Amino acid sequence: MKWSEISIQTTNEAVEPISNILHEAGASGVVIEDPLELTREREDQFGEIYELNPQDYPEEGIVIVKAYLSVNSFLAETVEGIQESIRNLASYGIDIGRNEVQLTEVFEEDWATAWKQYYNPVKISEKFTIVPTWERYEPVSTDELIIELDPGMAFGTGTHPTTVMCLQALERYVQPGDYVVDVGTGSGVLSIGAALLGAKRVTALDLDEVAVESAKENVQLNKVAETVTVLKNDLLAGIDEQADVVVANILAEVILSFTGDVAKKVKPGGYFISSGIIGQKKDLVKEAVEAAGFVVEETVLMEDWVAIIAKKQ
User: Fold this and answer.
1) Which residues are paired to 187 by β-bridges?
2) Torsion angle defined by CA atoms of residues 235, 241, 245 and 247, in that order, rounded to the nearest 10 degrees
């Protein structure tokens, strides 16, 4: 199906009335590119990292409002009506700014599939290879471990540096028969990796319901549902059994908030693998982990990210 993207350069003051005009013209939603988003503070609910690229936004003082209209015989009249309604806003004292309108034809198939060309099988460690569900892949060695992933609701492809470092650490420290707890599981990739390495049981935890559903789907896809249990949970709250390995790929601030709890939930001689740590927070996390009774075995750097592997005394 063909769609027409209508893009309107305007001001912050006119965003709401223009959005309403677009809705009334048949658009089911709007996209707002506002440079004020670059400085806006956000509530950090699940330990997300908000990293906005200034190049994705218009220059200061300009807001771009976009909507998508189906291409039909009435499109020209619809666009003329939209333009006239926007011009009329000026009579109500609303600053509509440049009011520059552009139309671009878009094919629905492009939205659905274009991004997939950038997501290919990637060997990320000695054993692990991440493979998208739509790709055919033949293992190149007998001990290669394949993790199939569908990014789903933007939970990533499993190839971010923090994920790679955690999987590599799991490969070095998880032993057959281990009990592993994965805090902030997201797509479930680390839990799947632990199961493929021979962990007897894995508990995958996340506070975000969408992440929980995504992880469950990926666990089923990789045929490790008998080993991995996915639960909606706030960090380690209510987890009583001690684990051989706890892995947490989350923000440094979150790691700092529960290192003491991790120490209670790791067996003596067990390991705490943490990542999601930016370089500037490395020493803070290391100090907290050591203060909780761990000995840091490794500090791994990849790009601007850090993973810390620590052993409980």
Assistant:
1) none
2) -10
